[in-house]
């Protein structure tokens, strides 16, 4: 038995997503790169590698991890590179995508030996959160003026465009790709490859995979480009739980259950976007507010319905705990860091990593 708290990655859940990714690659000719910003738990990279073409990154650390732990194609992107890191970034990458023309020009000489691209910003997106909207007013994410980009076409061979955010609506994806074609069509014709970024929920239950793959293929044929996708969330959605144990119960007008984990430390993204965690089946006559054990008053996973009254020692499994979660875990309050375990395809559970006091101590000096 592994001591809670721990993240449990279920390979069967991962496989459901990976098989859909492989199907889209096959039918459309697009390549799929895992977005490490979303999920970088490398113990399952051996398992994921056969279904994907490589990784994409947002920093020197990520590009190095992608190169060393995943292999295959390694795209480097960052909002801005520093002079002291550019050589090492290039040593790990087979493509580098600059966020701005000024970064492209600054590192033109150093990057002359590898494939280069530029991020474009079509100024429309599917985001419903200002915080995560790449097309928000005054956005720094990518170049938007086709005339300015046309002047540096001799230095680049492709583009990255990321403007889908948690988009489960194929017709919206289709319309936004149409906007991109309208706006940047002339540039796309001169490119050899185009990455359409992440944020497309195509591994979700009802997503029309064939329409999606055919749209990608048509786009690729119209412009004569190799299409890339950068699925983060879509690669790992519904694959992982955060396993916790109830430490205490209270009644303060509502039934409260305190578990041995923390939303602030272990599922921070939910707190940032003010979203509730998920517990399954969330059905039964006993409603509890499930709370974290940090000192933050609002360290609350959410309110859920349970079949039985909760008591100290009961297990609560928080669903969908892989994306933008394990990459953001932190040592707030010194709360015990969840271990990492993998559920193999035959159901056995392999403990992968435990974190100790030393990890906590070493995270600061
Ligand atoms: C450039 C880029 N690519 C890929 C992704 C992955 O997005 P998602 O995890 O929503 O698929 C992101 C997310 O912010 C991104 O900014």
Automatic annotation (TrEMBL):
It catalyses: carboxynorspermidine + H(+) = norspermidine + CO2; carboxyspermidine + H(+) = spermidine + CO2. InterPro entries: Ala_racemase/Decarboxylase_C, De-COase2_C, Nsp_de-COase, PLP-binding_barrel. GO terms for cellular component: cytoplasm. GO terms for molecular function: diaminopimelate decarboxylase activity. It is found in: Cytoplasm. GO terms for biological process: lysine biosynthetic process via diaminopimelate; nor-spermidine biosynthetic process; spermidine biosynthetic process. Its main location: cytoplasm. It is an enzyme of class 4 (lyase). Substrate binds at residues 233, 269. Its EC number is 4.1.1.96. It comes from the Bacteria. Its cofactor is pyridoxal 5'-phosphate. The keyword Lyase applies. Keywords: Cytoplasm, Decarboxylase, Lyase, Polyamine biosynthesis, Pyridoxal phosphate, Spermidine biosynthesis. Gene3D superfamilies: Alanine racemase, Lyase, Ornithine Decarboxylase, Chain A, domain 1. CDD domains: PLPDE_III_CANSDC. Catalyzes the decarboxylation of carboxynorspermidine and carboxyspermidine. Belongs to the Orn/Lys/Arg decarboxylase class-II family. NspC subfamily. This is Carboxynorspermidine/carboxyspermidine decarboxylase. It comes from Roseibium marinum. The lineage of its organism: Bacteria, Pseudomonadati, Pseudomonadota, Alphaproteobacteria, Hyphomicrobiales.
